[in-house]
Amino acid sequence: MSGQLVAMITGAASGIGAETAICLAGRGVRVGIGTYSGDPHDPETTLRAVRDAGGEGRIVEVDVRSTKSVDAFADELVAGWGRLDITVANAGILREAAFESMTDAAWHDMMEVDLHGVMRTARAGLRHMTSGGSVTVISSIAGGVYGWQEHAHYATAKAGVIGLARSLAVEYGPRGIRANAIIPGLIRTPQSSDPVNSLGPDGLERAGGYIPWGRVGHPREVAEVIAFLSSPQASYVSGQAIVVDGALTTAMRD
Prior knowledge:
This protein is an alpha/beta fold and 254 residues long. The chain has helices at 15-25, 43-52, 67-81, 104-114, 116-126, 141-144, 152-172, 200-207, 219-229; strands spanning 6-9, 30-35, 57-61, 86-89, 134-138, 178-184, 241-244. The protein is globular, with a radius of gyration of 17 Å.
């Protein structure tokens, strides 16, 4: 590929998505900042940081529950910048729900965003991508490595996106397009800081005591791995599920 690369990133108003946009912008990539109208975080904050990094960004409202909306996101970037090289399917939700009392609606809502939304994003991007392109989907240690009580629907979706990435790597390898999954560990994001549906600030602080690295991760530390996988330097890395967790999942607990 030659010329300035273009990336499509969902869930880019905060957390890992925002840091990925900033990280890629600092490497000269034009970034489509996908944001959802119900997200309380301001995508303009991401856009300002992208510009501060010397990059060019565009905010696009997208609902990953809708094929039409996701396709329109990809189409807008191609119409404006002439190409699409990098797709990062990051948008996701997290809800606590005991399995026995979980409704079909709660299960399906999780799948619509965390699994089907990832599929829609990857599909929309791949329709425009050529040799040298990269798709990265975001999984989790919940489902990607561990089970998680009262989060069976979330873990199931996050396990599913790993299978999706591996299958896309095989199907699109002959076209020179790579696909990988990232499995973040405990990362300090708005989602993990939610005390109702996740660990919350106190839980994250306690986690630092049993993570070998001595702390939870920062979204930038995940974004740097995504940026590498999206770059020509990762030209022979495909079909992988890469854990970014400070050795949490490889440590034996006392």
